[in-house]
Amino acid sequence: MLKVGDKLPAGSLQEYVEVEGNGCSIGPNSFDIEKSTAGKTIAIFALPGAYTPTCSAKHVPGYVEKAGELKAAGVDEIWCVSVNDAFVMGAWGRDQKTAGKVRMMADGSAEFAKATGLTLDLTARGMGLRITRCSMLVVDGVVKTLNVEAPGKFEVSDADTLLKQAQALKA
To answer: pLDDT tens digit string along 56-83?
Structure first.
């Protein structure tokens, strides 16, 4: 399993881009994880699924609300990662009003989840293989903090916890 001090695994995530530009076409675009994290501080939070109760009511809204404070604490970008396709993540981002605050990154085939060892098997609930609810600060591709939730919990991967860690890292 991924741990503090590890580099993020190689691979890509997809994002539904609303406006064409900067080398991105409208619609799903693939982003290389290594290139996208190089020279940046990224706050990543992962969650089991788009439109699910805790994810929609607490997890994403917390990061949208704290986006300005996270950026003031030295975070360049905030990524929400979930095992959903880019179309679903794009629609959920519009619903959650994440534009300009949180990048909604799709891990459609759970390749990132598997590569990090942060998988969550929700097959019994009809959701298949997902990613465990967690958050992390990544600096230049290296994990500096990692907060992994126990199954069914939402206690350590929230925006307030990651904000405190970002502030401590900047100090």
So the answer is: 999 999 999 999 999 999 999 999 999 9
Dihedral pair phi/psi, residue 151, rounded to 5°: -50, 130
User: What is the set of active-site residues?
Assistant: 55
CATH topology of domain 12-170: Glutaredoxin (3.40.30)
| CA–CA distance, 42 with 60 (Å, rounded to integer) | 16
Please give the model's pTM, rounded to 2 decimal places: 0.95
- Among the listed residues 11, 6, 14, the one whose alpha carbon sits nearest the alpha carbon of residue 141: 6
The set of residues, in sequence order, having a beta carbon less than 8 Å from that of 34 and lying 6+ positions away, is 8, 10, 141
Q: Where are the domains of the chain?
A: 12-170
Which tokens hold the place of 120? 């969550």
Task: Based on DSSP, count helices (H) and strands (E) in the chain, helices before strands.
Answer: 6, 9
